[in-house]
Design a protein that fits this description.
Elements lengths: L11 E6 L2 E6 L7 E6 L7 H18 L2 E7 L3 H10 L9 E4 L4 H5 L3 E2 L4 E2 L1 E6 L5 E7 L8 H15 L27
Parallel strand pairs: 3-4, 4-5
Antiparallel strand pairs: 1-2, 1-5, 3-8, 6-7, 8-9
Helix pairs in contact: 1-4
C-alpha cells in the first residue's frame, strides 16, 4: 500500500543534533515541511556521500521552510561517533535520528527485515504531517539531494494553489496546469 497521502505514524526516538542528544517524535514533522532520508548504516560507503550531499543542500532547503532528518537503524550514539570521526559526516548540521528498534523504518515501510537496515528512502512531508512524495532506491544507488529542491517547490506550489498541478520538469515560475475537461487528450 502506498504511503502517499498518509499521516506519519507515531514514534519516539533519540537523535544526534549539533553536539547534543535530543528526542524526536512524529509531532516534530508538523507545522513545517520535512524531508526524512533513510539510509542503511553508519560507517559505510554510499551513505556518507548521500548525507554529505544532503548537507550541501541543507541551507537551501531551510530557506524553503524545510527541516531535514536522516534516519538509520544505528543508535544516536553511533551517529555521534560517526560525526566525530568522519570529515564528511562531521559537517552535518541537520538531525540524525537513531532507529535501533526499527519502529520508524517499519512505519515508513523501508525496513529490510532480514538485514535489520533501512532501504534508501526519501520522504517529503507537508506541514500537516502527511507524506507527499516517496522515493526508494536500491542499496547500491545513491541519491542526488539537489532533486529535492524542485520537488519541495512543486509540493509547496500545489499546496498553495488548489486546482493547479505541476507538469514534468516543472521549475519555479514555470507554467502549471489546471486539470479540466478541456485538457483531456490535448497534452
Amino acid at each position: 500500500m502506498s504511503l502517499i497521502g498518509t499521516e506519519v505514524k507515531p514514534f519516539k526516538a533519540q537523535a544526534y543534533h549539533n553536539g547534543k542528544f535530543i528526542e524526536v517524535t512524529e509531532a516534530d514533522f508538523k507545522g513545517k515541511w520535512s524531508v526524512v532520508c533513510f539510509y542503511p548504516a553508519d560507517f559505510t560507503f554510499v551513505c556518507p556521500t548521500e548525507l554529505g550531499d544532503l548537507q550541501d543542500q541543507y541551507e537551501t532547503l531551510k530557506s524553503l521552510g524545510v527541516e531535514v532528518y536522516s534516519v538509520s537503524t544505528d543508535t544516536h550514539f553511533t551517529h555521534k561517533a560517526w560525526h566525530d570521526s568522519s570529515e564528511t559526516i562531521g559537517k552535518i548540521t541537520y538531525i540524525m535520528i537513531g532507529d535501533p528498534s526499527h519502529v520508524i523504518s517499519r512505519n515508513f515501510d523501508v525496513l529490510i527485515e532480514e538485514e535489520g537496515v533501512a532501504d534508501r528512502g526519501t520522504f517529503i512531508i507537508d506541514p500537516d504531517g502527511v507524506i507527499q512524495t516517496v522515493e526508494i532506491n536500491a542499496g547500491g544507488i545513491g541519491r542526488d539531494a539537489s532533486s529535492l529542491v524542485n520537488k519541495i517547490k512543486a509540493a509547496q506550489y500545489v499546496r498553495n494553489n488548489p486546482g493547479e498541478v505541476c507538469p514534468a520538469k516543472w521549475q519555479e515560475g514555470g507554467q502549471t496546469l489546471k486539470p479540466s475537461l478541456d485538457l483531456v487528450g490535448k497534452i
